[in-house]
Amino acid sequence: MKQALRKDLETTLGSFLVKDLTEPHFDPNWHFHPHYQLFLVEQGIGTRFIGDSIKPFGPGDLVMLGPDLPHLWRSDKPYFDPNSGLTTRGLVVYFTDDCLGTGFFDRPEMHRVRLLLDGSRRGLSWSGATHDKAVQALRELVAQPPTFRRVLSLLSLLDELSLTSDTELITSATYTNPMKPADADESSASSQAYRRMQAVHTYVLTHFHEPIRLETVADLAGLSPSSFCRYFKARTNKTFVDFVSEVRIGHACKLLINSSLTITDVCYDSGFRTLSNFNRQFRDVTGQTPSQYLRSMQSV
């Protein structure tokens, strides 16, 4: 059965939806929805895709996404093994612009929160003291019943996030969200084409350790290699080659931090054929060599 590209997240229990998600792995489908989303990873590791951004994720990863921004938290391969005993857990809040009434977030008193909501259309993350306070506030909010106090807790959390300066935009400055209203229609050509992109994502995330032939991936999308390259660039704001490289580098970053493998072993385990190419692409993506990156992570 095909997974819906656009998620329906309606609730009759309150003005917004709060979930404590505990599953063997996070939803593996590249998707979008018309809600704002606050999401905290409590347990699990993998690769996070938001718009044109590809980053490793782990416990403590906290982001806010605006409506219709395509995203995916792809758990690492061991989480898909039914015998692994591994579990992921995330806390999430979904809400809409009109969850508290039409025009509520456009009132003068909500000006800074409105700026926060507008900024979330490129994806937002936080660090430092703001991150720690927001994580605690989100945990408390998720534990509350759907009462007026929970509404106040959400507004207080949004206010806290709107007042800080240690906010990082997730997507690039040149990113343009490719999602259109027609993409919500499963029968539309754009929706069908975007579902083909899901197949491409799944293939790359499953086979990035191996050589990946452009012809194979283009065939998955039902396009010629040249047409696929143009389509992929228009949809993701990056070339397919860059996408594969970033997926491999994201995996390499996790191995450098969480394993005792040598840099050479990390190179080959991440799908690179030569150490020189690995070092060059690692520096292109992260701005550091693998050894510099490892030292910087060990000093945190």
Automatic annotation (TrEMBL):
GO molecular function, one term: DNA-binding transcription factor activity
InterPro entries, per database record: AraC-bd, Homeodomain-like_sf, HTH_AraC, HTH_AraC-typ_CS, RmlC-like_jellyroll, RmlC_Cupin_sf
UniProt keyword Phosphoprotein present: no
Keyword flag Hydrolase: no
Ranges where the HTH araC/xylS-type domain occurs: 198-296
Keyword annotations: DNA-binding, Transcription, Transcription regulation
PROSITE patterns: HTH_ARAC_FAMILY_1, HTH_ARAC_FAMILY_2
Name of this chain's protein: AraC family transcriptional regulator
Organism: Fibrella rubiginis
